[in-house]
Design goal:
Largest sheet: none
Radius of gyration: 18 Å
CATH class: Mainly Alpha
Order of helices and strands: HHHH
Structural class: mainly alpha
Strand content: under 5%
Number of domains: 1
CATH architecture: Orthogonal Bundle
Number of strands: 0
Distance between the termini: 57 Å
Helix content: over 70%
Amino acid sequence: MSLLTLYNNLNTFLCLAAMLFGMGIYGLVTRRTLIGMLIASELILAAASINFMAFNRFTAPDPTVGQVFTLFIMAIAAAEAAIGLSIIIAVYRNYKSIDTEDLVELKG
């Protein structure tokens, strides 16, 4: 099987997205720091973007629909990263740690 045949196959992109999604879920479950969890959530959003672009390329009659959805996902990921980092900085200033086990004392 040649490399061009793999590139022109929907299953290749879906398997790649599934692996990224699995790594993201694994990172969310196993990471103890907030930064690690933020990076893992970015992997999940990247997997969703790959799915939208793959289905757009192989099944959609209008090629701009999947690209627009992917741009929205990228904008949401950028906003999530900015807000998440600002929350992490605020937590670090109060607790001097970004370990999730140290945040048990949060009251709200």
